[in-house]
């Protein structure tokens, strides 16, 4: 009865006016939303880098691919036409894809691949997201060259939570192989060895001044003295965390992935594959030419590309060399050493949400996932297919299971159609065997099992995952990406996770919200989220060589109650296997 009284109590005129204003504002925000139509033609085009021309897989003949610009609330309708010789899918990295796993894109997870000569239309709606994301191929190693920026501006009339920059510049950090990346992957699969490292890093597709045959195409960014620039930095590299900085200029971090952060100033950022970082740069130095540069942060005991990519921040009023009629040599930034874990850790620890956030505190699923490498033994160690360490074949796993992608159907299609035998839902919440994860691990634990195992979650359940790196083969920073969700990074540390000691140190006030987070090498990271997006969602290491070896698993989030908690029907043009 009391509830009835409350619901029928007359509103005052001021309440009516306020309610009307809110309703009109809501309608206005809906009317402002736009639908953006694009056609992405996946095709091979000649691309010359490092003195050689390769027939490179691109989108619309562009490398990197087109930049997509939308506002929160907008919808993207992208028809992907596959004119290449390989199967392909496209992933919209970091987009929530609410109730719409069909548009997420990972091959054999939410869709079968788009075969050569076929097409598929992705329909992607942006809901309550702002910031810098990106899109890329999610089929084998095609994303080495098939990728681009996806920029989400605030709704019309909504300002940034920082001073408006004079200009905005996407900075896509990539890797380049002086050969077909698909051949690099195929050779690694065939031999069981680690893939060849890249021959160059790139900024917006160009290696820069420090590589052969590259200085004429080095990317240059002209700026006026005194202006503030927003750099939208994206690590689209295949297999490498990177340090990035701009000579003599401070960077103010204001956002990561599609979330704003509490601003802080740094001279260098560390960014893992799949991650994005927004930084403000003020052109407050003497007019001149300044290198922006990126090189590896290598946390593993493994070979890596130790070259450096550059672009040039060029003040328009910079003086020329009067004698030669040429511009002066740019100033180079001081980047950390390749193995400077202390700097990487200190940087990551500064990233926080700008205000207090609502972190799940009552946890329904308390999961502990070991993530790391492994080695599969060979019956004939001298075989050309067993060129890993000591005649083995490289592997990787989560909780000692190397994920096997199906081939007869995608996971989501099999689930929706009720097809049995494609996957099981018995992925373990903890490792099958407890051990000293970062210590001297018995060789009996180095060989993972194989399976297509999913972990089932009820709609609305709350989840905590502790991702524990292992020392099997080598410790390493594994950038873990969860499709369909963002999560709060509530804690991290080195060594083995100890709940009695470490949970008390969790940040439950203003932890950062991310879609990709690295495990400290020889350490752990803890994340929390609520399972409010039904469907099957891949979680994997964004180092693509590790994904190839099986460092992945998937969550099956069941439907809730009613249409708004239920996966929408698949589109009619969804590819079939």
From TrEMBL:
Compartment annotation: Secreted, Extracellular space, Apoplast
Span of domain Plastocyanin-like: 42-155, 168-317, 429-559
One of the protein's GO biological processes: lignin catabolic process
Its biological purpose: Lignin degradation and detoxification of lignin-derived products.
Keywords: Apoplast, Copper, Glycoprotein, Lignin degradation, Metal-binding, Oxidoreductase, Repeat, Secreted
NCBIfam families: laccase
Molecular-function annotations in GO: copper ion binding; hydroquinone:oxygen oxidoreductase activity
Cofactor binding remark: Binds 4 Cu cations per monomer.
Protein name: Laccase
Family to which this protein belongs: Belongs to the multicopper oxidase family.
EC class name: oxidoreductase
Catalytic activity: 4 hydroquinone + O2 = 4 benzosemiquinone + 2 H2O
EC number: 1.10.3.2
Domain of life: Eukaryota
Gene3D superfamilies tied to this protein: Cupredoxins - blue copper proteins
Entry GO terms, CC: apoplast
Cofactor(s) of this protein: Cu cation
